[in-house]
Design a protein that fits this description.
Layout: E1 4-8, E2 14-19, E3 25-28, E4 32-35, E5 39-44, H1 51-62, H2 65-85, E6 91-96, E7 101-106, E8 113-119, E9 125-128, E10 132-136, E11 139-145, H3 148-154, E12 159-172, E13 177-180, E14 188-191, E15 196-200, E16 203-209, H4 215-223, E17 229-235, E18 239-242, H5 247-265
Helix pairs in contact: 1-2
């Protein structure tokens, strides 16, 4: 059942969710802001819909020590995967007691939030590691790796959070959020590495060199702020981009701009 949500604000948005009987949500530990007193807060290490949850349930039913050991190992594996993605080690769970309750979340950067509804089809969503805000308990959470070669070329590693199942997922990004479909632009778009927030499983992710390796490509890599590669997104499905880059990308942009100014100003630009 879809959770009723209300987005408040224009630029630095937060989202308030109404939890009714039988509903609960989980969130990254840094995204919670406030709640009504009848909403309980519980911290768990296991991943929603993950192997640890299934192993824990099976261990409780069997009562064997081996089952609990298997559940502990599964939980440790899931925690390790979240560490690699830069996500918090534990999730916070919110459940109403004695009637409906409210809980509010916000994204990591000042910016907008986007509500995504999963319908249980094979099409899920992948989001960059800082985009996840909260999700309904019926949503399955996992980590998706783009691959060592692709991640290295993208400069950010690209370990995605993968959401499947049914229910509400809330994602956040910096500045204004823009939703595009590559199919509307010839089937493929190229994106700055710091602008990507999330994309549907119907969209293919890749990293491409800007052009042939020549003097112009080197000039773009040194002074253009995007390096030699851009993210390419192709297919027919929604893509969410953000207008504000994450800090590490902003720092690179400023450094590139400083180098470019020095080159234009000659010797005086170096002081």
């Amino acid at each position: 059942m879809t959770i009723a949500c209300k987005v408040i604000g224009e630029y630095a948005q937060h989202i308030t969710c109404q939890l009714d009987a039988g509903q609960s949500m989980f969130a990254d530990a840094t995204k919670f802001r406030w709640k009504t007193t009848n909403v309980s807060l519980e911290t768990r290490l296991s991943t929603p819909g993950g192997q640890a949850d299934a192993d824990t349930k099976a261990a409780k039913e069997s009562g064997g020590a081996g089952g609990f050991l298997k559940a502990a190992l599964s939980t440790a594996t899931e925690v390790g995967k979240r560490m690699l993605s830069g996500q918090s080690l534990a999730f916070q769970w919110f459940t109403p007691q004695g009637g409906s309750g409210l809980v509010t979340f916000a994204g990591e950067l000042p910016g907008q939030v986007k509500v995504v509804e999963l319908d249980g089809t094979t099409t899920g969503w992948r989001a960059e590691s800082r985009a996840f805000v909260c999700a309904e308990s019926t949503v399955n959470y996992d980590i998706s790796f783009a691959g060592l070669t692709t991640g290295f070329r993208a400069k950010d590693g690209y370990i995605f959070e993968h959401f499947t199942g049914t229910g509400t997922v809330v994602l956040g990004g910096g500045g204004s959020l823009l939703e595009l479909n590559p199919a509307d632009y010839g089937g493929k778009i190229q994106v700055h590495g710091g602008a990507l927030v999330a994309f549907s499983d119907a969209v293919a992710f890749n990293v491409e060199r800007i052009g042939a390796f020549n003097a112009q490509t080197v000039m773009t890599a040194v002074f253009g702020g995007s390096g030699l590669n851009l993210i390419s997104l192709s297919g027919d499905g929604p893509v969410i981009l953000q207008s504000t880059l994450h800090k590490e990308f902003e720092d690179e942009e400023k450094q590139d701009a400083s180098m470019a100014n020095s080159a234009r100003q000659g010797l005086l630009g170096r002081f």
